[in-house]
Amino acid sequence: MTTIAKGPVTGVTAPAAGYTHAAAWILGLAAGRGATPEVGDTHAGITTAYADRPVQALAQALLVHGVAAVCLVVVGSGLLDWARRTGNDAARLAGWAGRVAGALASLQLVLELIAVPGADPASPSRSGALFEMVQRVDGVKMLALAALAAAACAACRHGTLLRRWEVIIGWVLAATITASGIGYLLLSTALTPTALISLPLLLIWIAALGAALRHRP
């Protein structure tokens, strides 16, 4: 009885979560445009950016690491429901990877809620170190998202979850977000620019995945 009750709920919320995930990122990037630090900035530069525009920095954090985190958990839960219905082990792995990615995004939000209000240009080491921790957690989150994409695409060998073009985008996403994830984990300015490719792919693919969880049996 419980499983039957959860299916329709997931079918309604997973598409909404996929679209909301993309919207939260777009709005968050717009809110923080020119106001948030970048990987490679000094601790003084990071702290000054936070102290000068705390409202913009917090708005971005709440959207991309708060709202988007909830959306990832919802989509991951939808995958787990689909895996239970179909007995698909790869989809189950993808579902847990989605939930882990959502949890890591929430951790980023917590760190930012400490770093931004506490930014003091006279003592920049604390906020600078917290910013770098957020980026390293982001790297781990990206690797979880790579696992989500790869496992969901692998699940399609034994199911009908994604269409061909969605699978292709998923594999490209898995490759590019792995590279950017390693870059953020290591704070490497040589690799972090690959996020300019992986992020748009992520937003498109998560939205498509959410829709797929409603339309596919």
List the helices and strands and how they pair.
Layout lengths: L1 H30 L11 H10 L1 H33 L2 H27 L9 H31 L8 H23 L8 H21 L2
Helix pairs in contact: 1-3, 1-7, 2-5, 3-4, 3-7, 4-5, 5-6, 6-7
Quick synopsis:
With 217 residues, the protein is an all-alpha fold. Helix content is 81%, strand content 0%.
Count of domains: 1
Alpha carbon gap, first and last residue = 18 Å
Shape: elongated
Percent range for β-strand residues = under 5%
Rounded to the nearest angstrom, the radius of gyration is 18 Å
**Which runs of at least 5 residues are low in confidence (pLDDT < 50)?**
1-9
Structural class call reads: mainly alpha
Mean pLDDT equals 92
Would you count the extended β strands for me? 0
Provide the succession of SSEs: HHHHHHH
Q: What level of helicity do the residues show?
A: over 70%
By DSSP (H or I, 4+ residues per run), the number of helices equals 7
Largest sheet: none
Write structural notes for this entry.
By secondary structure, the protein is mostly helical. The chain has one domain. 81% of the residues lie in helices and 0% in strands. It contains seven helices and no strands. α1 packs antiparallel against α7, α2 crosses α5 (125-155) and α3 (54-86) runs antiparallel to α4. It is elongated and about 60 Å long. The two termini are 18 Å apart.
